[in-house]
Amino acid sequence: PEGMMMAALLLSTCAFHVPTTYHAGHGFQGRIFMSSPEPVSQPSPPPVEPKSYDEAEKLGLSLFAAGDFDGAMKRFEQAKGLPGAGYDVIRAQPGAGIQGDKSQPPNPRGLQESRFASPAQLAIAEYNIACCKLKLGQKEEAVERLQAFVNSVDNPGRQFERMLSDPDLAEIKQDILAMQEELKSKEGWNPFAGIKKMFNVEFVEWK
């Protein structure tokens, strides 16, 4: 699919188990016979759970490229609740971090940084989830997610060209055109409006 940047390389190992059998027949008492080696497949280790938006997004992109659309959708959903590009500074408990230690530098004001997915990242997640739902045959839900994406960006008029040219959204092209016409009909809509929300989805990597 267009725009995919990630691919997963899975390595599997196998071990050989050599069972022994004891035969107590006449003339062979106490003799041990070795059977032919039989390969025993080992279960794949569980995937490492992502700890950030970027990690979850990369995993989702990899699963999407591999055709696991349900798994990819779950990772994109997961990414929305993980630390991302957005951040805020909050005051910690009184006295916390004032002296500092080996693991934490001095923090005279007792401040802590809180990380979360930025508005742009949340918008991109909605777009990618829409693509997943469409691949899974959930057309109505895909349109709803795409509408959520359009509603979350500051300058949606500039995003329709990308959506209309995305082969993963070709099935709902008419729905996208309808969204575009509805947006144009709104009073005061300007396709060349400037940025007002301090982010521009155009410069964020997505599916």
Notes on the protein architecture:
- The chain is of the alpha+beta class.
- It has 6 helices and 6 strands.
- The chain has helices at 53-65, 69-79, 119-135, 139-152, 160-165, 173-185; strands at residues 14-17, 20-23, 31-34, 38-41, 86-91, 111-116.
- Strands 1-4 form a two-stranded antiparallel ribbon.
- Strand 2 and strand 3 (31-34) form a beta hairpin.
- The N and C termini lie close together (8 Å).
Present the secondary structure layout.
Elements: E1 14-17, E2 20-23, E3 31-34, E4 38-41, H1 53-65, H2 69-79, E5 86-91, E6 111-116, H3 119-135, H4 139-152, H5 160-165, H6 173-185
Portion of residues in beta strands equals 5-15%
What's the helix count?
6
Mean pLDDT comes to 75
The residue ranges in which pLDDT falls below 50 over 5 or more consecutive positions are 2-35, 194-205
Overall 3D form: flat
Which secondary-structure class do the elements indicate? alpha+beta
Taking the alpha carbons of the first and last residues, their distance comes to 8 Å
Strand order of the largest sheet: 1-4
**Radius of gyration of CA atoms, rounded to a whole number:** 27 Å
Estimate the helix proportion, in percent: 25-40%
Number of strands: 6
